Queue: 4 jobs
Job 1
Amino acid sequence: MAAEAIPWSEEKAVFRTCPVTGLKVDLAAERLIIANAVAAVVFLLIGGIFALLLALTRWQVIHLLPPDWFYRILTAHGIDMLVAWIVFFEIAGLYFGGAVMLNARLVRPSLAWLAFALMIVGSVLINVIVLMGKADVMFTAYVPLKAHPVFYLGYILFAVGALLALGLFFATIVVAKAEKRYEGSLPLVVYGLVTAAIIAAYTLLSGALALVPAFFWSLGLLPNYDPGFYRNLFWSFGHPAQQINLAAMVAIWYALAAITTGATPLNEKLSRFAFILYILFINLGSAHHLLVDPGPGFAWKVTNTSYAMYLAVLGSMIHAFSVPAAMEVALRRQGYRRGLLEWLRKAPWREPGFSALVISIVIFGWIGGVTGVTIGTEQINMLAHNTLRVPGHFHATVVAGTTLAFMGLTYYLIPLIFRRELKLKRWATWQPYIFGLGMALVSIGFIAAGIQGVARRHWDITFAQAPFPATIPGTVHLALAVLGIGALIAVVGGAMFLIIVLVSVFTGKRQEARGLLLVVTPSSPPEPSTSAEEGEEGLRPKGTFVLVLAFLTFFAAYYLSNWWLLGRTWFVR
Ligand code: HEM
Ligand SMILES: [Cu+2]
């Protein structure tokens, strides 16, 4: 028997059977999923309050915080959001994918609780030491900026906890296979999570390599720490960490498409291949953080940020076609076959999982992806480096893209995992739109200000006390007002999410979800068209094809216009 050959097989797991999905849910895994998800949401709340303070400072007519608090809150916001909120949620996702989706038991729940405790202690330590004013170094903590040792210790504890959780995820999948808990190959969503976890493993190790010496350096035990060395290793943590988010987000895209429209991938092999492209190539993109560093040479920079990086971009392009195409085919099957886009018009727009998915894809691709590839190009980076274009890019990817996808999925986890009735359903219908609109404005405001040269991470964008006079065009204020107004809208959308989740979890009726997974039950679903094309021809994803062409045109226009802008900075006749 395979099961006996496995260490830990003596552990007794207790399962319940989910009446909706028929999955066997390990109760220990369920409790851990809940704990990690709740921690994630709490850090989203804290980071969100900080976001509001920052945005009201960036909105130049308000300019709320004094300089020291601006940098302090910026440090805490970056860590609470990018590290705590995202990683806690991802760990919840890994336990869900590794155990629940495979009918398997989570190995060693006690170690998983240890991992959770390490991550909590780490993130609390960081917040405390930052708010005490002893670590105003931003989340990147570039050497030779020096923080209090507790700051690095907090980072390291968090990373060790996350590594432990990853190890348990891999072990759970191996044991599930050996115990024959699932048949055939891994489901695509779990496959995507495995991709995320593989990237996470080397990411976290690089993080440890960067931060452990920094810890000793700040204790005074290491006399010197080379900034170039630190920056290289930090970014082999900091950049791939975003690709974990990317892989997890794409896995959730496939899940949301399946939940809300019944979509199945058109070509699963291709989708799997696209995930492999991430593993192989995406880490090379880290070099885009070092484009102005004196150490690495030009050829190294260009090779890594261009040629190799584009293979990872190809992965994203494949997913960005596959997910909408799968939805289009599913909706055409339901009868919406007229013209190119009837399926899109009649799609379940009031279902928050669907709207979150579409808004996530659109802002991630059209704003985040396009600007990322553009500013990651060596030459154009010389214009964009350390301007507000950079936070404009990553608020489109990691906030409107990843965060919104995570929010969308949460609405379905509440009945399934928390086993509570989802409350405030009408709010849920609106929430993705409000958050998405706000974040679109935030990103566009950032980018528009950045294109006009406004620095990021800088309290005084007017450079009032600088020895050289700096002029910023008046239109910058318009861009920053768009940012500020967008932030207010996004904060309302974020608060709605938090209220829906907390009200449901703490006051929702305890219930076994019965069949009903969706948030909105249409009273009368729209009539499928009758006079439409029949047969296979009517099922082709023609609409998605046209949308993708429109995207590529926009991409080319934005990319080329940046070369044009670059050309204008050279006054050579
Ligand atoms: C309501 C939502 C949000 C708003 C309004 C917001 C706003 C801001 C602002 C104004 C800055 C400062 C930019 C600068 O002056 O350099 C900033 C930085 C940042 N934000 Fe957000 N943010 C939001 C949500 C998020 C989320 C959800 C994440 C991550 C998942 C995130 C990650 C970051 C990071 C990593 C930085 C850079 C920190 C640094 O430069 O060290 N933000 N954000
Ligand atoms: Cu990066």
Job 2
Amino acid sequence: MKQKSEFPIYKPEYQDHADSRLIAQPSDMRMGATKIKNRMARKVFIETYGCQMNASDSELMAGILTQSGHQTVTDIEDADVILLNTCAIRENAETKVINRLEHLNHRKRRESNLVIGVCGCMAQHLRDKLLEAAPYVDIVMGPDAYRNLPMALNAVVSGDPYLGLQLDKGEDYADISPIRKEGIRAWLTIQRGCDKMCTFCIVPFVRGRERSIPLNILKDDVERLVDEGFKEIVLLGQTVNSYHDGKHDFGELLWSIAEVEGIERVRFTSPHPADATESMIDAMENSPKVCKQLHLPLQSGSTPVLERMRRTYTAEEYRKLVQKLRERIPQIALSTDVIVGFCGETEEDFDKTHTLMEEIRFDSAFMFKYSDRDGTLANKMLDDDVPEPEKSRRLNEIITLQEHISAEINQTKVGTTVPVLVEGNSRRDNEQYHGKSDTFKSTVFPKENAQIGDIVNVEIHSATAHTLIGQIS
Ligand code: SF4
């Protein structure tokens, strides 16, 4: 075990939740509350990086800004405030944002009143270091401080940067109405933060402790979403199936959301294998509205590697869980996440991952090579000792394997009929629609008389590794 000292593991700093709802938090500002002045409506453009949780947070930020009289715009050229909602999972995600900031600074030199903010996980991860790298940034704000965005916009008029970096165990934004784009699929955050502490992951340090939004509030949200025309709800959380609001668990939540009149489909992402309870499996098996599709992150097929990752399950437990899911829900489609080249991963460990992927035959997979991140437990405790070319070789091997398996599985759909929720025009052909099957497979077919939002039966004529192609039957 190495002893690294150059980057400390960030100790999350929490504030009392009651304080976070105050209009001004002097301890969280570089200027006094008395300097807040020149309140004026701003035109804000939000640029989103990273995962679906961030996309959902951008909708939340738009809701907070709109409620306080500001306007969000879809053309960056119209904006006098640009907020980058960032990701910290990988180093290249941060490099991309730094490059983007340099580009935006050219514009700021011409437009002195342009406000640039960095929000989200990278802001929480880099903190003051971000201002060293990009001193022209006006707002640095972590995921638990978005409620203070209007205050931050007022505060920066004096030219001082605003830092909002306290984590808040009680902040769930349950009272905020996000502003969503029109569509048929709405993403609904049901839980924030994570208590799992996987050693490779920065999330618990930048998003804080797990907290769930009460079921009755979520149900009201879903009823509103139905009124707005949404047909499919995707429940979101870092470990979405560990949801518990003190009275109701995740299975109860699934049943409850699926019962809302007008909802056609309910999905969720991303569950943790250790929290795949009987209650969750029962709802997936027996509620017709809960889709028969599960993204179940594996990460490694080797138990010693899983232990070093602190994933809290063994390869054998994962294998048994998949068996159980397939016994109970035979048509289930499974996808996963896999990391190769994690600290200490031997050729034998890698072979176990490869073998487990061959055995389980996931419908699809997101595959990565491990990259060391400052601030994680692995960075502090473990050696990133698998050589880069070796990581690349292992990654290429599993990508080739998975492409082959995905193509084979999709071929088995040829000749079958699948229910598809129509989402919109196909990217390549305006005469065709695209949509997702119940098992989340992208499907393309001629429009005929179908309308966006309809569920149609599509007979599959051909398939690639990523798409089913057919005709309404
Ligand atoms: S479960 Fe693990 S990988 Fe997922 S967000 Fe939590 S710490 Fe990160």
Job 3
Amino acid sequence: MNETTLYLHIPYCKQACHYCDFHFSTHRSTESAVLEAMHAEMAMRSLQMPWNGAAINSLYFGGGTPSFLAVTDLSRLIDEARSLFSFSPSIEITLEANPDDITPEKLEAWHSIGITRLSIGLQSFNNLELQSMNRAHDASHSVQCLEWIADGPIQNYSVDFMYGMPGSTVESWKRQLDQLATYLPPHLSCYALTVEEKTVLYHDVRSGKTTLPSDEVIVAQFEALRAWASPQGYTHYELSNFAQPDKYSRHNSHYWSGQSYLGIGPGAHSFDGEKRWWNISNNTLYAQGAKVPSERLTLIDLLNERLMVRLRTAKGFLWEGDVPVGLDHSLLKRVKRNVQTAEAKGLVTCTDKGFAIPPDRWMQSDAIISELFLSPKES
Ligand code: SF4
């Protein structure tokens, strides 16, 4: 039986973080209508290939802030998904949770409804950084939630952490990593703060109210992270992701492998192996059943997407398995020529099986990957 993943997008947050451009709302008036529409969407998609008959090995609650949802609502979504889809016996059910939502009682309740893994939006142990990003928690929550998790029933978890924060230096970042070493989460997602248009951060940076560290400092923070992670037992398996043995994120790994994924809820994206579609990023219109645009990917689109996700991973791109079936031989030759040129410049390393970007160049991966892309005009 094929394996696949299910993503449920919970589009509500307590407050708006200044850097965030995900789809969320701080108003919950649409919540019950959105949840009903999500149940209906799951029922409809469960009849569709490849999800009809595939085993779901990862159910992931993302957002927004899924930990903001009542436990009874989370439980109902899990039960409904279990009745509509085939859950693999070893399914991983992950809940994104913010530190201020975590209590010992909540941990017990989430465990009792089948949550097996948490992804904690911790971001920092530094109060000034948390305040400057308008996070809803403070540094004491960051520490407290890790202590509660250590004593709680859900031992498999990931921590989201951010470098490149305003006012941060290489030294202040190293101090944060030292603090994290006390807990050594099974999995770490460390992202460089990025400035997205239409966010408060974007306006604050443009107006000079907020100053970010220089590119050199951000690269040095990334290098400090890599140097810290390996002796702590982490494998750096993707640009922003680090895992203790056997603690890789199933949801993300599946997504990077280029296989199908099903997203339910406002703003969620799906891919069935050939076609991609995306739900409207508007809670009211989603609940009213807004039209769902879609596009069929060409073999060149598929190839470029696989280059984009695979080359940010340690495994890299494999000639056997990652080349879309049916890609014209002359196009494949063109990709191989591009790869040879990149290898000569030291941008990728090649083996008989495929090629990869060396981890110390992952910070430049966007630029390197774009040199390998095939243009749609080449078809
Ligand atoms: S809690 Fe997460 S989704 Fe919500 S605003 Fe903050 S970063 Fe965005």
Job 4
Amino acid sequence: MELKDKIALITGATSGIGQVTAIDIAGRGAKLVLPVRDTEKGEALKKEIAEKTGNTSVEIIPCRLDSLDSIRDCVKAFRQKHDRLHLLINNAGTWETKRKESVDGIEMNFAVNHLAPFLLTYLLLDIIKASAPARIVSVSSTAHKQATMNFNDLEGKKRWSSMRSYAQGKLANIFFTRKLAEELKGTGVTANCLHPGVVRTRLFDKMPTLFQRIFGLVMIPPEKGAETSIYLATSPEVEGVTGGYFAKKKPAKTTRHAQDMEVAEKLWQVSKDYCGVD
Ligand SMILES: NC(=O)c1ccc[n+]([C@@H]2O[C@H](COP(=O)([O-])OP(=O)(O)OC[C@H]3O[C@@H](n4cnc5c(N)ncnc54)[C@H](OP(=O)(O)O)[C@@H]3O)[C@@H](O)[C@H]2O)c1
């Protein structure tokens, strides 16, 4: 997709995979809008992008993805300036190792990894549709294979494990993408998701040192980890391709459970209820 004069919104651009993705997309001439929770980091990134790419069309919007109100405010701020959005990359994520709750009292892995991209995308859908051809890319994970959607205890109130709740959030990204692709049929907007690889980023900072060391042996650098996001965001090869899950720039296998559209429909409704949208 030609990105000159196009608008791209990327979450989680202040670190890791999102940072590399944002720099690449800026280098292709797009105007960037970056929701960030730490505006100092956002300003530093803006400077880095200008230095590396010469692109100074970078706008920072304060946004905490663990707060539904903050996401609503972010969308309001975006709408005040823009009526087009050609590329949305739902990249931000967290891997909590202790059960924590968001500003809204929702389990943190579920809130940040699923509800945040759900609400952000939902509230921007009309603008994205009006900007077609447009793309929505969400960063999921192969970790989704470790979970099924547990609608009886989505937030792990009865039983919580770090792996299961992270994995469930990443599985939710796949269900969200499938249902979104269906909703967007015929609009010229595509929705795809991906596994970036096991990437050396701050995502694992809260893990025990031994775990970090073991994972460290197989980690790839963020530049490599961002390749599939950038591919799905820009490549003509995936023009019109929608509802897919990719890894290493190719369609990849999900679990059978992740293909169950009944679960996708149910999660869509549950997510709407959580976010208070109709
Ligand atoms: N690294 C891997 O091996 C791997 C594997 C599979 C999938 N993924 C997925 O890749 C995506 C990017 O992660 P990464 O590996 O690049 O991790 P990272 O370096 O930790 O970056 C995460 C980004 O998300 C932002 N973020 C986290 N919580 C937030 C919140 N509550 N509000 C606003 N922003 C928030 C962070 O902001 P701050 O800079 O302010 O912290 C940062 O910009 C995630 O969705 C992750 O699940 C990563």
